[in-house]
Design a protein that fits this description.
The complex is a heterodimer of chains A (about 200) and B (about 350).
Chain A (H helix, E strand, L loop, with lengths): L2 H22 L3 H21 L3 H25 L4 H4 L3 H23 L6 H11 L6 H10 L3 H22 L11 H6 L2 H4 L12
Helix pairs in contact in A: 1-2, 2-3
Chain B lengths: L1 H9 L2 H38 L15 H11 L10 H17 L18 H10 L2 H10 L3 H32 L4 H6 L14 H14 L11 H4 L9 H26 L10 H5 L2 H22 L5 H29 L9
């Protein structure tokens, strides 16, 4: 076993272990933290595959932003696990079916057929080039060949953001808030008058 | 000596690489920790003078041994774990706060040749690693089982997410101007005098980056996560001894890191401001340290000058001022670079 494969098996074990903990542990905050650990180990695996852009963006977006907000929410709301666990048996067949379907889909999409050695020979030859930059290659593909799917995905996300804000935003006329523009406009002479006078009465 | 070299030669290659890297890491982290110690001293002195006091002057000549004394005191103090706290996470939190602040130094170039790992996606790496620093604060607040600490960590989480977006957008401007993610290359692109440094064409982004940097490090005037007057000491209120010291180390190491990044991204890194005789005599590392020190002084100056922001003001500044400023400037840059003959202003 080479040093590299030892690292691979280490991170793969951490990834599987933490992913299992996410769904089995009772405390929701710890579960979210295990999800963070799963993301980080997945990023390390991608780093081993020389997909440094994907690995770093996974950490940046999911670990650095999404999971922080997720933890924020999970810490604030009091999750009652007893209620959550009700009807576990009723949902098991449907949930199990969905899980099996997802595993099959993932296997079809990223199975050995697409990632066989002869498919990747071309990519490996590119990557062996000393000035090869994974980030640049990905950027070129995204903004040329796949520019329409990319932009459409962006628009869909934007729609989702606007919808989420529209659904949750309430205008509450009873809350008091300050208008920063008016605060900045305030001048001392509008509010107070300086009166010059002697410190002591005239002797 | 001869025995040592044969011993070295007999080691497997991977362990040679590992040992050599360890030596380099120590060569970066040890001076860094020393600078952190003396930055705390500098902070107390600078703020002291700004408030017409002298600051620490009792321990050692002119108070120079004060940070050492502080360190020894914190090392010897008892670590108290509050009842009802989650012990494992309570101990892990300060470590998680300090780790990213140290890991990010792996890709920071000190001069054009002095860098531990000259990676292609260096800027992204730094951004990703520093974004993990918030976990220390969030976990500390939650694991302490204390309302004050919890409020501090919630504030910190919201604040860091808000300012990270502004910071990321400011860095997009740097990427557009430099055309690379490699930190060394970004600095080298600014060669040839201070008028080539990126802070001039990217001035709004430079300001946004600096302000977000102050907010990301939880420094005054953005230090609501500790906010002594409202929530006692925020996320680290339950910490004592060395666990508290680790949070302190993390904050100052992050300050130095962000100053170094500002110097590299916007102020030409280790390059001299003029490319002729008296300025080129100073070694590159000297210029780099000088620039970092000047930016660090700005941090201290800010702390001595401004009162703390209110929480809603912080959110407003992040979301409604800094992010729109970066978006407008990116639009301006894109338009000028692709549709006008003045693209040379941004891109060399």
């Amino acid at each position: 076993m080479t040093f590299e494969s030892a690292i691979f098996y280490f991170f793969a074990a951490v990834l599987l272990g933490s992913a299992a903990m996410v769904v089995t542990i009772r405390n929701p905050v710890k579960s979210a933290l295990f999800l963070v650990l799963a993301f980080v180990s997945a990023a390390c695996l991608w780093m081993l595959l020389k997909a440094e852009f994907l690995a770093i963006v996974l950490v940046l977006v999911y670990v650095g932003a999404v999971m922080v907000l997720f933890l924020f929410v999970v810490m604030m709301i009091d999750v009652n696990l007893a209620v959550l666990r009700q009807g576990f048996g009723d949902y098991l067949p449907v949930g199990g079916l969905v899980a099996v379907l997802m595993v099959v889909e993932i296997a079809l999409a990223v199975g050995p057929k697409q990632f066989a050695a002869d498919h990747l020979a071309h990519a490996a030859a590119n990557a062996a080039h000393p000035h090869y930059s994974n980030t640049r290659a990905l950027g070129l593909l995204l903004y040329t060949t796949y520019v329409y799917p990319f932009e459409i995905a962006a628009v869909i996300l934007l729609v989702a953001i606007i919808a989420a804000i529209a659904l949750t935003m309430r205008r509450r006329p009873d809350t008091k808030y300050q208008d920063p523009a008016r605060q900045v406009e305030v001048r001392a002479k509008d509010r107070m008058r300086i009166v010059k006078m002697r410190a002591e009465p005239k002797a | 000596m001869g025995e040592l070299t044969t011993l070295w030669g007999n080691l497997p290659v991977w362990s040679q690489v590992l040992l050599w890297d360890l030596v380099k890491i120590v060569a970066i982290v040890a001076p860094l920790m020393l600078s952190v110690a003396y930055l705390t001293f500098a902070e107390r002195k600078v703020i002291g003078y700004m408030q017409v006091r002298i600051g620490p002057n009792r321990v050692g000549p002119r108070g120079w041994l004060q940070p050492i004394a502080d360190g020894v005191k914190l090392l010897l103090k008892e670590i108290i774990v509050p009842s009802g706290a989650n012990k494992a996470l309570f101990i892990a939190a300060p470590v998680l706060a300090l780790l990213p602040a140290l890991v990010a130094w792996a890709v920071v170039p000190f001069t054009s040749t002095l860098v531990l790992a000259n990676v292609n996606a260096g800027l992204l790496f730094v951004l990703a690693v520093t974004s993990m620093g918030v976990y220390g604060v969030v976990i500390a607040g939650w694991a302490s089982n204390s309302k004050y600490a919890f409020l501090g960590s919630l504030r910190s989480a919201a604040q860091i997410v808000a300012y990270e977006i502004a910071m990321g957008f400011a860095l997009v401007g740097v990427l557009m101007a430099a055309g690379t993610l490699n930190l060394r290359q970004i600095a080298l692109d600014q060669a040839g005098g201070f008028w080539h440094w990126l802070f001039l064409p990217l001035f709004p982004l430079f300001l946004v980056y600096f302000i977000s940097g102050v907010a990301e490090t939880n420094r005054a005037p953005f230090d609501v996560a500790e906010g002594e007057s409202e929530i006692v000491a925020g996320f680290h209120v339950e910490y004592s001894g060395m666990t508290f010291a680790l949070f302190f180390l993390a904050e100052y190491a992050n300050m130095i890191l962000l100053s170094a990044l500002t110097a590299i991204l916007f102020l030409g890194g280790w390059l001299p401001p003029f490319d002729f005789a008296p300025f080129t005599w100073v070694p590159p590392l000297g210029w780099f340290l000088l620039k970092v020190s000047v930016i660090l002084f700005l941090y201290l100056w800010l702390r001595a000058t401004f009162p703390r922001y209110r929480y809603d003001q912080i959110m407003r500044l992040g979301w409604k001022v800094l992010i729109p400023v970066t978006l407008v400037w990116l639009g301006v840059m894109g338009f000028v670079m692709f549709y006008t003959p003045w693209a040379f202003l941004f891109y060399r």
